[in-house]
Amino acid sequence: MSDLNSIPSLSEDELETLGVLLEDEAERQDSFDFFAVHGLMTALIAGPVEFSVQQIWDCAFDEQLGFSKAEQEQVNSLLLKLSKEIQAWLDSGQDFPVPCDLTLLDDEDEPPVESWAMGFMTGVLLQEEQWYARNEETVAQHLFPIMYASGLFMDEPEMADIDEDVDLSNQMCANIPAAVVELYLMLHAE
Known about the structure:
Blueprint: H1 12-28, H2 34-46, H3 53-60, H4 69-92, H5 112-126, H6 128-132, H7 136-150, H8 157-163, H9 166-174, H10 176-187
Helix pairs in contact: 1-4, 2-3, 2-4, 2-5, 2-10, 5-7, 7-9, 7-10
């Protein structure tokens, strides 16, 4: 267990800068917003394959970036710093701090937790074979709350049943922080 105060983290200004740059890019072209990038990065770091920031660029953004060269360097630097923060939280063994409210009951078209979970599931699907290689059933159990929140599987009957029960939906989303840590520990156990 590490001292939670020693976890490297982005300052408020850095977080805001990264959020604005990613939001602007998401509006210019259909790329990932901050929450989806954070979820994708969390999955790639928690997952069984070695993490590379290039994976974020390849997956989250269109080939024709709207970023200037300076903005691209700034985003890259902030993503590297954010990756260290995510890694430190995963290593701490504490419930993972998802950077948004853990509810799908939001006035926005896409609640931030849905965007985060969609990004996370994108990372899982990129490396699906490796994620499920060791213990498919247990991985699927831990992934279930994230799969639910992502909205990517809403046509499945069990997801519709959860959607109809507000308390169950909120409970499912509340399970995400612990699920992320369980997945990380399981996928990185020797």
